[in-house]
Amino acid sequence: MFEVLEHTADIGFRAWGSTPAELFAHAALALEAIAVDTSQVEERYVYPIAAAGEDYETLLVNWLNEVLYYVDGERVVMGRFQIDQISPERVSGKGWGEPRDPVRHPPRLVVKGVTYHQLSVKQEGERWVAQVFLDI
Amino acid sequence: MIEVQTDDGIRFRIPKQESLGMRTDVLVFASPELIEQIRRDLSLRQAVNVATLPGIVGPSLAMPDIHQGYGFPIGGVAATDWEEGVVSPGGVGFDINCGVRLVTTNLEKDEVRAKLRELVNQVFRDIPCGTGGKGRIELRDKELDEVLVKGARWMLERGFAEERDVECAEEGGRLEGADPAHVSSRAKERGRPQLGTIGSGNHFLEIQFVQQIHHPEAARAMNLHEGQVVVLIHCGSRGLGHQVCTDFLAEMGAAMKRYGISLPDRQLACVPIQSQEGQAYLAAMRASANFAWANRQAILHFLRDSFRRVFGNHVKLTTLYDVCHNIAKRERHEVDGKKRDVLVHRKGATRAFPPGHREIPAVYRHIGQPVLIPGSMGTASWILVGAEGAMRETFGSVCHGAGRLMSRTAAKKGRTAKQVEKELEERGVIVRSETKDGILEEVPEAYKDVDEVIEVVHRAGLAHKVARLRPMGVIKG
């Protein structure tokens, strides 16, 4: 689904999916898991998420910025995502989760931002692969 | 492999012929050992990319603590022409006005050592890191806007500061030209509950003692003596600044096309300083910087309470100085014999103005601006003073820390947080962290040797050593 990548000062991840929709859902999960321990998230609420971009790469950054705003701005943690519609210019979907509780969702890292550093979204054979670095 | 040239083993140059599109040379301050470490990641390539920025004046500069960042290397300095040049949010970073405040106390090492665990626990309770919860100051909309305009001065008006706290801060703890109207409501909402919190990553609050004085005259002006306990606060503008950077990076990506700017790395996104987008970014960046100064002030306010609770009311905490190391500022510098207005981007670099500069508070003007360099967790930190060399060679700038060497994942391998805590305790350092990973990722071995970094800026004549500080207690996210 995703793996964490090394960077001298910060952190990144590589995510996979059989379609762009699955890839975007997994990338959102990777971001959540880097910021918070998501093992005890309960799916109490549904949160809508949408973003626009110029191509799949900028779209992914903007999508992840929306997820990050939920984490750090709205103080919500999500444990499952679903994409309803996706094109290289637009994505909409939702996430299931609940307000953050420091006891049940221990914080891991404060993610400051999603970067364009060595950003890539590619189709490799049967699967879609993305690489993203986060500033922490 | 990028070729570097050096004549003196301190200044390492990459000529502009190295890469297509470079408008100027890259100049790295390092030692032969440090340059070998620097070559292992992408930081020199990033310094080369910075040299392609439209309107860059003087070389693309890198300090000895340089390491790979996003777009700009961390430890990079670039000045751009105020009229013709560009502003790049990547040259400031997500954590706008990340910086350091150093506070002196009237306590000695042994007194604090006797109650160290109690003190560390008290500070840990009083000052949230904010990785999971909220800060202790609640701001209404109007008050938040006032903070964004007035910075640390707002805290003074509200009784959260002493006059000296703002006098002895870079820019007096407040940048002129901030406009809250250019800060998105998202940025405000993200930052609002985080005022008075430290954050995570490499941010920390450290209780330290003065181990050795290297510059008696400067130490006298700073009221410093060996064995004295001081506190170092390292943090920035929290979610507010992070969101401002995010918002403007997205906007500038599109705007760059309109201005016909193309760059080797999208993270370097920039627009002309004099454009509407450039001015809007600078107004929002200044507002974020002001939030960061208010944040460090709020932390000091609660820290005073913590110290009084443990040691009694006779304890006095005095701000020595406060510097920012992620910022872009309009300054006047001499370039090729002519005075010019430039925008100095300091991305992981500290201003270091020499003696006599009018921007330095009166108490320090004869010795130079205090420069505060936090080391890695549990090693050492430094106080320096700016010197003439910085004005001549680096637009009045020096390094900002030790500089990372090892990735966070590598740092975590083969040890547990408990082991690291124990090792540090054996060296006389007590650590409290909100997260388990916070301790592991910041192990001292993950960083370059801060003493070696300081030696380079000292020998290069950019700044002079004043005092070396050793940690006793660390509070981090």
Question: In words, what does this structure look like?
Answer:
The complex is a heterodimer of chains A (136) and B (477). In chain A, strands 1, 2, 6, 7 and 8 form a five-stranded antiparallel beta sheet that branches. Chain A has a three-stranded antiparallel beta sheet with strand order 3-5-4. Helices cover 24% and strands 43% of the residues of chain A. In chain A, strand 7 and strand 8 (127-135) form a beta hairpin. Chain A is an alpha+beta fold and 136 residues long. The longest helix of chain A has 17 residues, at 56-72. Chain A contains two helices and eight strands. In chain A, 51% of the residues are buried. Chain B has 477 residues and is of the alpha+beta class. Chain B has 16 helices and 19 strands. Chain B has helices at residues 32-38, 43-50, 109-114, 116-126, 141-150, 152-157, 163-167, 185-191, 216-221, 238-258, 276-311, 388-393, 408-412, 417-426, 436-441, 450-459, and strands at 5-6, 11-14, 26-29, 56-67, 74-81, 86-87, 99-108, 204-213, 228-235, 271-272, 317-324, 326-335, 338-347, 350-351, 370-373, 381-386, 397-398, 430-433, 463-476. In chain B, helix 4 (116-126) packs across helix 11, helix 5 packs across helix 11 (276-311) and helix 8 runs antiparallel to helix 10. Chain B is globular. In chain B, 61% of the residues are buried. The model of chain B has no long low-confidence stretch (mean pLDDT 94). Classes of the chains: A alpha+beta (136), B alpha+beta (477).
